[in-house]
Amino acid sequence: MSRHIIIISIIFFGLLGWQNIVFPQTPISDIKVNGLDEPTTLNQSDALTITVSLNNNQITDNADWWLAADTPFGLYFFTFYGWTTDWAPAHQGPLFHLAPFEVLNMPVSGFPAGRYTIYFGVDTNMDGDVTWDSLYVDSVVANIVSGEASGYMNSVERMAKALFDTTYKNLKASETMSFLPFSPMIGTTSKMSSKFANYTYTYGCVRVEIEDRSGTIYYDECYGLDGSIHFTYDFSGSTYVLHYNYDLTCSYYGGSCDITGLVTMTVSYEGADYTISIDYGDSFYVCGQPISGSCLITYNETTGKYTYSYDFGEYTGYYNGQTVRCDWNNDFTYDGQYVNGSGTYADADFTLSYEVADLCYDEQGIPTGGIILGNFTYIEKDITFKIEITSYSDGVATYSIIIWENGEKTYSKTGQYPA
Fold it and tell me: Which domain of life does the protein's organism represent (predicted)?
C-alpha cells in the first residue's frame, strides 16, 4: 500500500510540475477565403477574397513570408510584383503582428473549375527557400465549380429563398381583404368586394396595384421574374372568377424566356372554407411553348390550414431543337403550424424531386425551422441538395445549403433570411 501511495504521489506531483514548464512560443499563421477557415465552394458569380494574419507571439526574427496557391493549372507564388511559378517569398524581413490583411479580392468568373489550396506561412530561416523545419503555415481550400454546376447552385438557392418568401404569409391589409398563404396572385382574391377601393401594397419582391374589378401584379427581378400579370375579375355570390394575362420574362442560368398568355382562376367559399382552382388553358405559353394543366387549393381562413396541389400532366412542347415531354406536380399541406409536402418534375433528360419537412414561420412569415431535401438528375449527373433552417433569432433566420454531386459534397453555403 505504501508503495502505491508513493507512486501515486510521484505521478500527482509530476503533473503539478507541468504548470512550471515554459513551452517555446511559435508564430501562428492564419489564412481565410471569404472570411472562412473551412473548405469553401464558389461559383462563377461569386467574388474571391483572401485574408491573412499573423500572431508573432512577440518573436521578431527575420523570416521568409510565403503565400502560395496550388491550383488545377499549377503551383503559384504571390509576390508584390504578381503571381509567379518561381519559388519566391512574398516578403523577407522581421516578424511582426499582422492584423487581418486582404491580399486578394476579385471575381471568380473565368477561373477554371477545380480545387484550389492556398497557403500562408512564415519561415524563420530567411534564405529565400523553404526550410520545412522552421516553417509555420496555415492553409485553406476553395472549390471553384463550373458554369453548369454554378447553375445548379443558383437554382437551389433561388428555390430556397422562394419557398421562404412565398410558401406561407398571413397578412391583412384591411378589414375587407386578407391574403392567403400561397402567393400574391392567390392572395389578392380573398374577400374582394365591389366596394373595395383602389389599393397598392408590396408582398415581398412583388408590388400589387388593385383598381375596381382589375389589378396588376408587378415583378421586379423577383427570383428571376420581371414584368407583370394583369388581371380582371367578376363575382357572383360566393364565387369569384379571375382572368390573368401574363407578360413576364424569366431569367435563368444561360438565358431567359417569356411567360405569356391567359390563366383562369375560380375562387369559391362557404364560411371560412375556400376552394381555389386554376386552369392553365391552351393559350398559356412558357418559353414559347404551350403548357396546360390545373391547380387545386383548399384553405380554411380560421385555422390557416390548407392543401395545395397541381398537376400539369404530360406536357409536350418543342424547346431548344427537340421535343420535350414532362410530368410536373406538387402536393403541400399546412396544418396551422407546419408546412409539409413534396413535388416532382420529369422530362426526357432531367428529373427533380423534393420534400419539405416541418417548415414553420413566425408571424411575419420568416422561417423559424424546417428542412427541404431534394434530388435532381441531368444526363450523367446526380445532384442531391439539403436546405435547412439552422437557427432563428429576432426575426432573422439562418439557413444552410449543401449540395452533393454524384455522391461527393461539392457546395456548401450559409445565409440569412431576410438578407
Answer: Bacteria
Q: Which of 8-22, 32-46, 261-275 has the lowest mean pLDDT?
A: 8-22
Q: Which of these ranges, 71-85, 292-306, 401-415, has the smallest mean pLDDT?
A: 292-306
Q: Could you count the other beta carbons within 10 Å of the beta carbon of residue 16?
A: 9
For each of the domains in the chain, give its residue range(s) and CATH number, in order of start.
25-144 (2.60.40.1930), 149-417 (no CATH)
Of the candidates 62, 61, 301, the one whose C-alpha atom is nearest the C-alpha of residue 180 is 301
Alpha-helical segments (H) within 137-270: 147-166, 184-187
pLDDT band at 7 (very low <50, low <70, confident <90, very high): very low
- pLDDT tens digits for range 283-334: 888 777 777 677 777 777 777 676 766 665 544 443 444 444 456 666 777 7
Annotate 18-34 with DSSP letters as a single string: GGG--PPP--EEEEEET
Separation of alpha carbons 255 and 276, rounded Å = 33
CA separation (Å) from 418 to 119, 363, 400? Answer: 35, 14, 14
DSSP β-bridge partners for residue 206: 203, 219
CA atoms of 361 and 155, how far apart (whole Å):
23
- Which 8-state DSSP code applies to residue 133? G
Do residues 177 and 170 make contact, with C-beta atoms less than 8 angstroms apart?
no
